[in-house]
Each structure stands twice: as C-alpha cells, then as structure tokens.
Amino acid sequence: MNSSNNKLFARRTVLLLLSAILVFGTFALAGPRSAAMLIVGLGFGCVLEGMRFGFTGPWRAIVTERDGRGLIAQLFAIALTAVVAFPLLASHPDELNGAYAPIGFAMVVAAFVFGAAMQLVMGCGSGTLVNAGSGNAISLLALLGFVLGSFLGSLHLAWWTALGSLPVYTLQGLFGNLGGLLVTLLGLVGIGLIVLKRALPGMRLPRRGLIVAALLIALLATLNLVIAGQSWGVVYGLGLWGAKFVSAAGVDLSTNVFWGAPAHAQRLQQSLLTDVTSLSNIGIIVGAFIIMRWRSSPGAQVAALQPLSWLIVGLAGIVLGYSARIAFGCNVGAFFSGVSTGSLHGWAWFFAAFAGSILGIRLRPRLLQTLIPIGAAQ
Amino acid sequence: MNNFVAIPSRPSVGYAALGFLLVLLLVDTWQAQPINPYQAPAPIALGSGQAPTAAHCTAF
C-alpha cells in the first residue's frame, strides 16, 4: 500500500468511527428510535449521493434531453413503497400516519413555484441537503435560505390555507385500500408510459445501479414509516430548525397560529434529537458528507459565481423553503410520500410542481445565464 | 475575474455544513428541555400500540 492508499484507508476509518459515535451517542442521549432514524437518514444520504439518485436532475433531463431514466427510477421507487405502505397503513391505522394534506389554491400555486425554484437552485428538499453535505457551495447557501423560508412559510401557512382548501382526500378513502393502491399504481404506470413515450431510445429504462438505488430508497422510506410512524419528510424539520434559531434569539412564537398549536409547540420545546424529521435530515447531510470524503477524490467544486448571483441563490433558497411549506411538502414529503401513501394532494403537487419545473428550466438561462454552473443538481 | 468570488473546496464546504449542524444542535441543547430517557418512545412505531406524535411536512 502506498502513502496515498494509507491516507484514504485512515480517512475511511475515521468516517466509520464518526458514524458509529453519532449513532451510539444519539442512542445514549435520546433512545433507540432516534438512533434508528439517524441510521435511516444516513442511509438516505449515502444512497442519494453515492448512487446519484435525485429528483431535480431527472425532471430536467426528461424535458431538455428527453432522458427518462431518472424519472422512471423515481416512479419505480414510489410504486415499491406504495405496495408496502398501503397494507401497513390499513392494518395499523392507530400507529402509522400517511402524508395526507388538503389540496388548496395556495398549495397548488406554491407547488408550482417550488418546481420553478428548484430548477433555479438545481436542488429540491432532499437534493439541497445532499448537495450541501457533499460540499456544493451553492446548495449550502440554498439550505440556509431553505431553513429561513420554510420557517417563514410556517408563520403564514394558516393564512394561505384559508384562501381555499378542499378536505383531505385519500385514495384509500375514495376507492378502498386495495382500490386506492391499484389507482396509485395505475397512475404511476400512466406517467411512466408518458415518460417512455417522451424519452429517446436508449434513455428510457434506468441502468441497473439506478434500479438498485430505487430499491434502497423504497426500503429506507418504508423503514422511515415503520420506525417513525410517519412517512419520509424533509420540510417540517427545516422549518423547525429555523424556529429553533428564532426562539433562541428571544422571539416568542407561542402567539403564532402554527407554532402555538400544541403539537408544534411541543416539538419546539423538545430536543431535535427526538424529532424524527430532523434526525433523518441530519443523517442525509452527514451521509452525503461521508460519501464525498469516502471517495478518493471529492470532485470539483461548482464554478465560481458573480457576487450578485450568491444573493439570487440565497433568495431562491428562501422561496424554495417558503413554497414547500405552503405546498405541504417538497419532492419528498408531498410527492414521494404523499403519492406512496395515497394522498390526493401528492398527485396535485406533482402536476403543479412539474409544470413549475418546466417554467424554471426555461427561465434559468434568462435569469441566471452563466451564473449557475452545470452539474450542481441532485 | 475580479468580480468572481472564489469558492472553497468541496471538503471545506462539507465541513461547513457539518459546522452548521453542530451550531444548530448546540443552540437546541441550550434552548430545549432536557431529554427524559424514561419517556423515550418504543424503538419502532409499528406494533408499539402508540399513536405517532411526530410532525410531518403535511402538518397544518
């Protein structure tokens, strides 16, 4: 072994030790469920970064390059999760919650805005976490904006939702448990067929590595549901982080409709090490960092930006967080988890966000020409 | 290239992300109630008989 290999071996050993210390420390401080959720988050981070499974990039690829492989992999992962989640939710309704939210005017508009913004910063909820952890400077700034934006969105969520919302509809409620699952799978197959029709030959079916990644993401999402009692989510945790900072600065949030509600007030008072969404978010960032440092070369940093463009990225991050909060989630909480657990709002979110994504793809060269580097998406 | 800001390397930015998490957890430790290990939930929700108490992105 030469010196370079020795250094790499030593670094990887330190990374494994760091992971073990994090998990055992969380176990000792907050108990087994928190440690398990951190492991699930680390798994998400490792798979998303290590196997290049993402949301924003594939949505752009099917539009601009007619490459459907990444989107097909997403649909496959959601379908696999649904096949397990629907029966679990039906058999354990008192212990497990799906990602259910109402469809509303503001929700649909916010999903559209989110779709556009995620193409501007080239990262969605999970993508921003992964890219920040793997050392993408743009995403780290976008993450800070996301935290602020989702907190600000939580302050105004009640007002936006009051503009007009339907009751919460689930496909189980509309068609029964089996019927709801079948409708979900048919919907995913239908979208898949559209993707296959749109994609160019050779860019239709995912390579084996991406299929394995989809399998692992579905497994981790199912573990998230089984361990936490709720589906995989990102945005709530980031809004909670913002609320923690604001509370620490002395601001009283108890008079706010959202943070004054008992469930959210309790989360604000309790440690983040007991909040399952925060734990999986932390795990995603650390997992992506581990993969980046595990590699023999961390890869090139994104291209340098003009100073003004940093401001644009920060603002886009705030918009991303704010709109995700108003839309009841991002690609993970609303799309992946909403659709895979039967929420009708997940489908509304997908169509609105995809339309916004098309707009974002078209706007990016005009608004951010030469500012956003290629290859930053996750 | 004077109007461009030099960006630190990927490892440096990754460490900055971990630093952000460290600051977050320190602020949280200072602000939050101490964790009561006797009130820790069951290891997994499935089969625990307990209703989920965590909040999700879909919460309103």
Quick rundown:
The complex is a heterodimer of chains A (378) and B (60). Chain A has 378 residues and is an all-alpha fold.
Describe this structure in words.
The complex is a heterodimer of chains A (378) and B (60). Helices cover 74% and strands 0% of the residues of chain A. With 378 residues, chain A is mostly helical. The longest helix of chain A is centred in the N-terminal third of the chain and has 28 residues, at 3-30. Chain A starts with a helix and ends in an 11-residue tail after the last helix. Mean pLDDT of chain A is 93; it is low at 372-378. Chain B contains 1 helix and no strands. Chain B has one helix at residues 10-31. The radius of gyration of chain B is 20 Å and the shape is elongated.
Number of helices of chain A: 16
What's the number of helices of chain B?
A: 1
What is the CA-based Rg of chain A, rounded? 20 Å
**What's the assembly state of these chains?**
heterodimer
Mean pLDDT of chain A: 93
The share of residues in helices of chain A is: over 70%
Mean pLDDT of chain B: 87
Secondary structure class of chain B reads: mainly alpha
Q: What is the distance, rounded to the nearest whole angstrom, between the alpha carbons of the first and last residues of chain A?
A: 34 Å
The succession of helices and strands of chain A, N to C, reads HHHHHHHHHHHHHHHH
**pLDDT < 50 runs, ≥5 residues of chain A:** 372-378
Radius of gyration of chain B: 20 Å
Give the percentage of residues in beta strands of chain B.
Answer: under 5%
Largest sheet of chain B: none
